[in-house]
Design brief:
By secondary structure, this protein is α/β, with parallel strands linked by helices. Helix content is 38%, strand content 15%. The protein has a single domain (2-316), classed as NAD(P)-binding Rossmann-like Domain (Rossmann fold), CATH 3.40.50. The strands form 3 sheets. The chain has a 7-stranded parallel sheet, with helices on both faces. Helix 1 links the parallel strand 1 and strand 2 (26-31). The longest helix has 18 residues, at 128-145. It is elongated and about 70 Å long. The termini are far apart. The relative contact order is 0.12.
């Protein structure tokens, strides 16, 4: 059996390749060649640009595969090139397809659990990237209906794990490694960003490849449990043996926005993939978060490199961060609150009013 993975060197792509190899597939990856990884067995390589229509058509012309997984590149061009060339296609898209996913404060937001049939981004002027994801998915559905291939779509949330293109966890990990005494958590770190550990996403991909009931279906996928930003921060610090003050600050006042800090909770409804394909996490989210923190410790991004730039040009401007914190402390003092008491209060559970406690005891 011949398999093609478009991408193959990213976080879930690498894991998908390894699972295909475990199943004795003859695997070829199509990528730019900018990042080369060692796999457990021999893997074929097609070097080209999966983002350019002409390159995709030339590089994939006449090549046939039993299965293909698209994790990278321009989806609409990729699926056109694969039409009639592959039996089964699993196409990875993302959260950007949902209208309002990147809402700003004061704008309409998404439901608490985002189902697959939530409103899509259909206005290119509003969000061109999300709109093009929608266009790509529509083209897949059209080609599937025509019998060009048997297709399944997986919508990813934030992806974390080794080789992640945007290592959001590094924002926290580097601060712990640099022994920062505090970290600012916007909105008290209580927002919930849905993430997907690379191993778990690869498992979902294999289910989509192997389960016949996935034919023509679209699934949200991600970790079963969604952690708050505060909990993610605590797990990373514990894994690295670090302690710090976690400082609450309004999102708009924070000098450096944590990439996981959103103006709304982003939580996918996973009931479809769990019910139809039997999806369950291979690695629990707490363990996955700790594993990735340790991996980043041992494989740190280059200071100022592309990975750090993806977090923002001044993501690690500690001097500005310290100035903002000093101003915040002054504000607390002006309100008659000591910084020490304020931090101590963050680690204590919120007590019920005495009258209500009495009502509870009477129940």
């Amino acid at each position: 059996m011949k398999a093609l993975v478009i991408g193959g060197t990213g976080p879930s792509g690498y894991q998908i390749v390894e699972r295909l190899l475990e199943r004795d597939y003859d695997v070829t990856i199509y990528h730019t060649g900018a990042h080369e990884l060692e796999f457990s067995r021999k893997v074929g390589h097609i070097h080209g640009d999966p983002r350019e229509k002409e390159s995709i058509q030339k590089d994939l012309h006449g090549r046939r595969f039993d299965v293909a997984v698209s994790t990278s590149g321009r989806l609409r061009y990729v699926v056109e090139a694969l039409a009639g060339q592959v039996r089964k296609l699993v196409a990875v898209t993302g959260e950007g397809i949902y209208d309002g996913i990147f809402a700003r404060a004061g704008q309409p937001t998404l439901p608490a659990l985002i189902p697959e049939d939530a409103p899509k981004t259909t206005d290119p002027a509003k969000d061109r990237w999300g709109y093009m994801v929608h266009v790509g998915e529509q083209r897949i559905a059209e080609l599937h209906a025509k019998g060009a291939f048997d297709a399944t779509i997986l919508r990813y949330p934030y992806v974390y794990g080794p080789y992640a293109y945007h290592p959001f966890d590094w924002y926290i990990v580097r601060r712990a490694l640099d022994k920062r005494p505090h970290i600012i958590l916007e909105a008290d770190g209580l927002t919930h960003p849905h993430r997907g550990y690379s191993v778990n996403l690869a498992h979902a991909c294999m289910l989509a490849l192997e389960k016949p009931q996935s034919s023509g279906r679209t699934y949200n996928v991600g970790d079963e449990r969604v952690l708050s930003l505060r909990r993610i921060t605590m797990i990373i610090a514990e894994a690295l043996g670090h302690t710090w003050d976690m400082v609450d600050m309004p999102l708009r006042l924070s000098p450096r926005r944590n990439p996981y800090a959103r103006v709304q909770h982003i939580v996918f409804d996973l009931s479809r993939i769990k019910g139809e394909l039997g999806y369950r996490d291979v690695v629990p989210v707490e363990e996955a978060t700790a594993r990735y923190a340790l991996w980043l410790r041992d494989h740190p991004p280059a200071p100022g490199g592309l990975e750090e730039q993806a977090l923002g040009k001044s993501a690690f401007d500690y001097a500005e961060e310290d100035r903002a914190l000093a101003t915040w402390k002054d504000g607390l003092t002006a309100m008659g609150v000591s910084y020490k008491d304020y931090i101590a209060s963050k680690s204590k559970p919120i007590g019920w009013p005495r009258a209500f406690q009495g009502d509870m005891r009477a129940m």
